[in-house]
Amino acid sequence: MGGSDTGGRLAALALAWLAGVAIHLQQRTLWPAPLYIASLLVGAACLFAAWRWRRAFLVALVGALVCGAAASGWRAAQRIDDVLPAGLEGQDVVVTGIVASLPQQGAAGLRFRFEVESASRQGAKVQLPERLALGWYKGFHEDAVLSEPQRALRAGQRWRFTVRLRQPHGSLNPHGQDYELSLFEQGVRATGAVRDAPAELLDPAAGYWIERLRQRVRDAIDASVADRRAAGVLAALAVGDQSAIEHDDWDLFRNTGVAHLMSISGLHVTMFAWLAGLVIALAWRRSARAMLAWPAPVAARWGGLLAALGYAVFSGWGVPSQRTVWMLATVTLLQSAGLRWPWPLVLLAAAGVVTAFDPWALLQPGFWLSFMAVGLLMASSPADGRPSSVDAADPAPVGSPASRVAAVVRAALRTQVIATLGLAPLTLIFFQQVSLVGFVANLFAIPIVTLVITPLALLGTLVVPLWGVGAWVVQGLVAALGWLGSVPGAVWTVAAAPTWAQLAGLLGAVLLVLPLPWRIRALAPLLALPLMLPPRTLPADGTFDVTALDVGQGTAVVVRTHDHVMVYDAGPQYSRDSDAGQRVLLPFLRGSGVGRIDRLVLSHRDNDHTGGARALVTALPVDDLLSSLEASHPLLGLAARPSRCVAGQAWTWDGVRFDVLQPPAAAYERAAKPNALSCVVRVSTAARSILLAGDVERSEEAGLVADWGAALRSDVLIAPHHGSRTSSSAVFLDALQPATAVFQAGYRSRFGHPAPDVLERYRERGIAIVVSPACGAWHWSHDGVAGARADGTCLRQSARRYWHHDVAAAGE
Question: Any idea what DSSP says for residue 279?
């Protein structure tokens, strides 16, 4: 059997394993754990049979596929069993355990991972998941400060808290982050908050010395560096505390294409291994005894791997770092074993190892960005016998010192160019945007961050004044990035592309950096064009579609006609540094190909309706702002054309009519409370209609019925006031006669929305009920057919996977 034949078979087996993992990740529900164990035994038997009878290679492929699916399913079944009992949700529970991560301080308070040692409720022992994600919040006021116990919280300490927990639940929206997948991958099976009860710091915990060391370094950086921006970057690069970087700075880094350098990503760990391997190789060659004991290239490979492992552990051992370490370890072992496999086979072997430890990696952008970065470096390397990034850090010791330095600089420059160009398609695929100034920014940011700032951040743990030098370099880097980020059109934003366009774009990136003739590379721009200008699916003239986004306790609805977009309310502000506009609406709009908002309607001033508006109006052009906000409201100063919504206003877009039904002009003169001023908008065609009701209450509902009568009738109702008892009166529902009502509310909201008696009122009338915690984002496409049911589609059902929280529909 030839070497190429063997390599092809190994590659096929690795692909079969990965296919099995991918198939498992499509499961909506898990099988019983014994079934996965039985499947794993069947797969192993197939592999053994194929090994004994060499001609049965198809059996081997089946075995590898079954093993990939079964091993992943068995791991998932183990993890999903570690669940918070439903009866303990929302109950006060006393827990004792370890602060197992560096506490992240935000505007609202502290967040940290907590590993449970024991738990009790009302004196009786209870069983909790092993790992919790807790928040310890400082209050509801902007000027609130951390309490004395909160200020004392440090990684590695043992504490006793009273907590209130819930099963992992996050908003689920198109083009948004799958928060529940992230928690599942980390093994976090409950989230919650520390209650306002005595919190007791107990005896020091054994172990966790790395976390305590990271905490000391984080505290020392804060004490030594006065510039908060520079201190945040140094802490992020030294100990992996990404929360230390402010929200505005993250925006700058994303817009200039260097965000991957400011967190401990796969590319970062790989570059660190490259740098460490280079330093070790140069030092190794200065010792004849060392050269006789171990060749310098081997020492460079293993030294780079150990340095990467140490850096990954010290920076928090995050999931992206773990994946990269397993990948580098696989490459190093193969090279040390003398197996000069082709680079695709090396990458496939590494991917198999990574997914054996972390099957959910296949769904994470970091996995693909890391493998694409390393794969492009391997694929674009000249055929000189050094295919890996670790080997590339060990240039041959020939020529003068100046020529060797020049060779290193050329290699570093080449690496930057390849990473910038090659990763652009993946950035478009995962984030629907790419920085057009990122190429220039990365040319100087990559060497500055990897060769200057990161070493200074780490060496500062030994020589504290080096942090001051690092802060000065950070300030200069941020100033340069700020100038680049201010260039008009610095960011290219596209809609989410179909799968075929994504694959074509990736192929174009590979062709561009491969050492191929230029006549072949010239195909790259053509292949990338559908990814950069993807086809869009728009409503036909005379129709519209509606998406009620899952923003928690708040309202955010997007209405699209053929050529226009209206956003009705912008969801809540979750904290001083987080809101629904930035976390939910902008990703959805960009992924849908929306580059501007024709009209933003803010029904009234309450935070759960306007909290995300600032992020929208500062990130996207907004042609018109229609609201009931008072003249002094700061949002009006940000809008190009603010105007007051008054009953009787109407406009038509692409054959679709929009009517403002509430409030009457006189309501503004009565100094009515905000809910009474809610802008109520009805969107309609001859066939279909939807009513967006804001937070109107019974008196306003009665006024609407009196003023509009049968004209209120609508197929869909965005339920007023999230299902509060103050709204959804019987007379109002009888006038509307909706087929479907959508309640936008938070999971286990402290307001209790939607109220059970309100839901019963809807059920009595045969109205279909959609509740956002159980539905996720709700999408309704107007099909132009009168009389058909307005059921819509719930993302939590259409895209369901086994790690998603199974929230029963209200009342069932």
Answer: H
Both 736 and 595 in a single domain? Answer: yes
The answer to whether the CB of 494 falls within 8 A of the CB of 436 is no
Beta bridge partners of 547: 558, 779
Same domain, 593 and 736: yes
Report the number of distinct structural domains present in the chain: 3
**CA–CA separation, 795 vs 778, rounded Å?**
6
Assigned domain for 334 exists: no
774-777 long-range contacts (CB < 8 A, ≥24 apart) are 774/807, 774/808, 774/809, 774/810, 775/550, 775/742, 776/171, 776/172, 776/173, 776/550, 777/172, 777/173, 777/174, 777/547, 777/548, 777/549, 777/550, 777/588
* Residue 231 placed within a domain: no
Q: What is the pLDDT of residues 468-509, one digit of tens each?
A: 999 999 999 999 999 998 888 888 888 888 888 888 888 887
- pLDDT 10s digits, 53-98: 766 788 999 999 999 999 999 999 999 988 899 899 999 999 999 9
149 and 20 in a common domain: no
Q: What is the pLDDT of residues 711-743, one digit of tens each?
A: 999 999 999 999 999 999 999 999 999 999 999
Would residue 14 count as lying in a domain?
yes
- pTM of structure: 0.88
**Structural tokens at position 707:** 């003023």
What is the enclosing helix (H) or strand (E) of 164? strand 158-166
Q: Which of 207, 236, 255 is the last residue of a domain?
A: 207
Domain span at residue 761? 545-798
Does residue 485 sit within a domain? no
